[in-house]
Write a structure and sequence with these properties.
The protein is an alpha+beta fold. It is built from five helices and 15 strands.
Length: about 300
């Protein structure tokens, strides 16, 4: 049996709730948890010195690679949803020749990634394009697991619903097989991401309708809120703000392969990294990290 600790974390371009830019601070938050797999959202890889998003900072960093190196997670895949450059304080331009920064999602792994698949969702109106990244990870005991990373749109309603349906079809296309192994060789699928959705939204219900189990619902304690990390809600007076997040927007789902002859994938515990051990957790990003530990059994 292998314990697999997985974290989903929207890092807000490594700009914290205190508006300071720091890749190192994100790395410190993650390092204390010692994860085997990290799914990151809102992460950037700049090819020149620029500001990629309006909330971001001027830098020339490949954030996924820097974090993978600092965490000793040797296997890293970055999937940009868009290329972007901030042209002013309030405006940015996407997918043009001047845009030298990639913005999207990344998966970091301690264990080898055997196969990678990507899916770009259809653009909803004029909203920012979103995507998903699937990595087939080989564990030390011989078991294999698909880990899917995604970030749905921030506008509630039709945008999220459309993307959730496309995501479900993408996951369904993975099945429990791959180019390197058959349908009985994959222990299951783990889906991580910032869904920008409350638990009763249609986007979450779509995932459950495809047999994906919300690990917080079965193994978590408390409300599981991850946003805003510092409890401060924009637009509300300070006295209305809380010290704790008030929205549950981040999720880790699991679907075990009941026909797998190689192993089983079971959620053991789920928790939010809530700053009790270190207050840096509350300011490194505008989201808190969500963590689930799985047991992956190899059946001889």
């Amino acid at each position: 049996m292998v314990e697999l600790k997985v974290i989903s974390y929207n890092v807000h371009s490594c700009v914290g709730s205190d508006m300071n830019y720091s890749v190192d601070r994100i790395g410190q938050v993650l390092e204390r948890q010692d994860p085997a797999v990290v799914c990151l959202q809102e992460i950037e890889a700049n090819h020149s010195t620029q500001q990629t998003r309006v909330w971001s900072s001027v830098h020339s960093s490949h954030q996924p690679r820097e974090l993978a190196s600092s965490l000793a997670l040797e296997h890293c895949h970055f999937a940009p949803a868009i290329s972007s450059v901030a042209s002013s304080r309030y405006r940015e331009v996407h997918d043009c020749s001047d845009a030298k920064g990639g913005f999207g999602i990344a998966t970091l792994s301690k264990y080898p990634i055997l196969e990678v698949r990507r899916r770009t969702f259809h653009r909803f109106g004029r909203k920012t394009i979103r995507n998903a990244l699937a990595c087939l990870i080989a564990l030390p005991n011989g078991a294999k697991v698909w880990v899917v990373n995604t970030h749905l749109g921030c506008h509630w309603g039709g945008e999220q619903f459309q993307q959730a349906k496309e995501l479900a079809r993408f996951i369904d296309s993975l099945g429990m097989s791959s180019e390197t192994c058959g349908p009985e060789d994959v222990s299951g699928i783990i889906l991580c991401g910032d869904f920008n959705s409350l638990p009763f939204f249609r986007s979450v219900k779509v995932m459950k309708s495809f047999g994906l189990i919300d690990t917080w619902g079965t193994k978590g304690l408390g409300p599981g809120c991850t946003f805003p990390a510092d409890g401060k809600i924009p637009g509300l007076p300070r006295f209305c703000s809380r010290r704790r997040p008030v929205m549950r927007l981040d999720y880790i789902f699991v679907k075990s392969n009941d026909t797998c002859q190689e192993g089983r994938l079971l959620a053991k515990c789920a928790f939010v990294v809530n700053g009790e051990d270190n207050p840096v957790d509350l300011v490194a990003s505008d989201h808190l990290p969500l963590c689930t530990t799985f047991e992956v059994w190899k059946i001889a």
